[in-house]
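A brief tutorial aside. Many learners find it easier to grasp structure tokens once they have seen a single protein encoded end to end. The record that follows does exactly this for DNA (cytosine-5-)-methyltransferase. Read the sequence first, then the structure, and try to relate runs of similar tokens to stretches of the chain.
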Amino acid sequence: MYSVLDLFSGIGCFSKGLEATSHFETKLFCEIDEDCRNVLKKHWNNIDIDMDITTLNPIGNFDIICGGFPCQDISTSGKQIGIKGSKSSLWKQFKRIINEKEPKYAIIENVQNIKNRGLEEVL
């Protein structure tokens, strides 16, 4: 069984998909949106949900860290400020946690326009 840390969890789609294979178990969520946290609690009532990625210091090791950091500054629907915008710059917190925890795998999701608005910095 692979352990999962789900960051920028939303309503838990990464975890739901991974767990559907019966090879993964989510150990911790991190999600700031209250409505999303309520959905997570409904489906994973025994798993902790941290609210603030900037102060998150997860205990233990994780085989997989997954998530989709905020896209508002990157998306063609927004102002396209880029990866350094106040919301999309949270990818640095994602990177910090990956570097600290050194998982076997990291799954990172974002909008297609990231290739024009900061992908080289993320990679």
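Self-check: The mean pLDDT is 83. If you spotted this yourself, you are ready for the next section.
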